[in-house]
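Hey, resending since the last one bounced:
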Amino acid sequence: MKQEIRAVKYDEELKIEAYHFKGIMQKFPNHFHEYYVIGFIEKGKRYLSCKNKEYTIQPGNLLLFNPRDNHTCEQIDGKTLDYRCINIQPEIMRKAVFEITGKNYLPYFTLQVVFHNELVSLLKELHQMIMQGEKDFRKEEIFFFLLEQLIEEYAEREAMPDDTEQSTETKAICDYLEKYYMKNITLDDLSRLTGYSKYYLLRSFTKQKEISPYSYLETIRIDKAKKLLENGVLPVDAGLQTGFTDQSHFSNFFKRFIGLTPKQYMNIFKDR
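The structure tokens again:
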């Protein structure tokens, strides 16, 4: 069996992350990120579900996830995966968009999978330069040219779609989970908050958000933990500060969602 590669590189110049997962068979549960993800598969096939749409993705396909686009994926051909992506925080995306368009907004990608796209080769070159620690300004040039094409062809000039289909109760649950994520939250707490029965609450929230309340909470906790680890907080403390009951629980959840252990992720940022 070939050795796994789980590598992440933070680029200090562009202020973005590059991920490279090779030789893995991991299934990623339904979750979302607080940042943009632009990725592609080098080898392997993958089942992807994103925002109630299902895809079979393979080499040559471009993946475009907006912040909070919930998605899940798993291997379907019995072979290992070679996946690569760049992650762009909203504030970095906003600055880049302003550089490109002269307008201050966050783009919203209307397609999450673009099949057989020629921009994959440009993304691959950018990803390789980041992973190799290249300092040449060709890297920044590619970054801007890539975003320019993606914004022009696949994005709306809107910050994010509104939440017209989200009820007051669902919004209250989201606000509560995002405020008290570090505490031991129960379904009874959410039921009292909304006045809904537990079962109706679960069905209503999941239908509107396309993710269950607990998966939503998990995602919030992992995102908060990532920020702590990036700032040098030790994994044991990051876990406790974000609501995980013990280190084992935290490590298992973190690797399940991110593909790395908390310590591996923290080490990326040690020299910042």
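The domain at 168-268 is CATH 1.10.10.60 (Arc Repressor Mutant, subunit A).

Sorry for the duplicate.
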